[in-house]
């Protein structure tokens, strides 16, 4: 297990980067705790896999250092970092049986056969392949091969870190839930430092202790699922986390009031003079339709998703999403929307502004 320190880390695939825009991974300075489970979350191309490959040693960064437990491993090969990595697409030895595939990392390190047999049986049970241990990998489907890859990554107890690069892409939906649960149980039992790359917010939020949200090569927030939901530090986090995502509406903010297209809204905190692009951000869960107060809106459609309803409304060209209870009345006279002031966030140039208690 290892504490992982990213010190002034950045990477460009260009030989002579001239500006920040030339960097696929913009400067990072973070310490990731020993034994914690992290998820790297973001859209395709945001730099997740680049960062993971730097941590694993498959890529040498253009600048900065990476340390495992205060030891500089920036230029150390993967084999010297004592990590296990599972890739998006299955990597298995086709001519070997499932049993021998799972046993390979342990035998390669000279473990006793009694230990190998016990651990292989345990991992096979975890990934649901006990009945297939004697089958050759060559004839298996992509999802079964990926389960072998996962199992081989988890079979060693002594690794510094377990790295997963979108490992459940080819796994069927039901098995995804089971394997995520098993990965979480493995983490709780052995305390490995785990880093899990995904573009799926459900995978990230259910797996990780802390989620690292990336956007355009930059880490925009590291936090617990609750922190990401309640206080997104960047508008991208608000948009990317949640279904539907956070409503972001351009506004003028003065003290503890927001002014939007001539309508005044109360805020729970006070703000000084803000420069640049100013907006408020409100989760659909904290918006309510009203017949008498709030922003004037036009309800475009109502989506009944079983446990609640999602109301899609329009306000001066901006779509506003509102979540209502399954039994809440949605009348023709309800043409305004109000927000819970305690859950209205204020942003300047897409970054959260803290404000002061009003």
From TrEMBL:
Tell me where on the tree of life, at the top rank, the source sits: Bacteria
UniProt-recorded Gene Ontology molecular function terms? ABC-type ferric iron transporter activity; ATP binding; ATP hydrolysis activity
* Classification via Pfam families: ABC_tran, OB_MalK
**Cellular component annotations (GO), alphabetically ordered:** ATP-binding cassette (ABC) transporter complex, substrate-binding subunit-containing
Q: Where is the ABC transporter domain?
A: 4-241
Keywords attached to this Swiss-Prot or TrEMBL record, sorted alphabetically, are:
ATP-binding, Cell membrane, Membrane, Nucleotide-binding, Transport
Q: Which CDD domains match?
A: ABC_Carb_Solutes_like (cd03259)
User: What family is reported?
Assistant: Belongs to the ABC transporter superfamily.
What this protein is called in its record is ABC transporter ATP-binding protein
List the lineage, top down. Answer: Bacteria, Pseudomonadati, Pseudomonadota, Alphaproteobacteria, Rhodobacterales
